[in-house]
């Protein structure tokens, strides 16, 4: 891989299971992960679409949330991002098997960085 590749999009939705069913039925995507909060993750085999379950008690509105790049190595990119005047990427918390780092662009839009991609090995190896 010679340059970062866009491999992940995330949308906050009001009914994640319904939206996952829609994308699987209408576009042939496959659901490969469900979070305890009901968020669903689907893929076309290349791009991972996170359908994040909206929480009325949360502070994140429904709609676009973030995107993610698969990169050869996070450390050198973190250095160049920091030199460009944005905060250095930070490790993401949680137990998901993807999206190791979170970063922001100059306007504060979130994006993830991953060295191993956005699909679990069981899906990525197919």
UniProtKB/TrEMBL annotation:
It comes from the Bacteria. InterPro entries: Glyas_Bleomycin-R_OHBP_Dase, Glyas_Fos-R_dOase_dom, VOC_core. It comes from Amycolatopsis tolypomycina. Residues 5-116 form the VOC domain. This is Glyoxalase-like domain-containing protein. The lineage of its organism: Bacteria, Bacillati, Actinomycetota, Actinomycetes, Pseudonocardiales.
């Amino acid at each position: 891989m010679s340059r970062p590749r866009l491999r992940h999009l995330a949308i906050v939705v009001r009914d994640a299971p319904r939206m996952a069913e829609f994308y699987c039925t209408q576009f042939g995507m496959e659901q490969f992960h469900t979070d305890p909060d009901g968020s669903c993750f689907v893929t076309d085999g290349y791009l991972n679409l996170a359908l994040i379950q909206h929480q009325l008690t949360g502070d994140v509105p429904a709609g676009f949330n973030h995107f993610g790049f698969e990169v050869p190595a996070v450390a050198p990119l973190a250095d160049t991002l920091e030199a460009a005047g944005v905060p250095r990427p930070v490790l993401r918390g949680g137990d998901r098997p993807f999206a190791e780092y979170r970063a922001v662009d100059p306007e504060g839009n979130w994006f993830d960085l991953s060295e191993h991609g956005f699909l679990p090995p069981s899906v990525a190896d197919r």
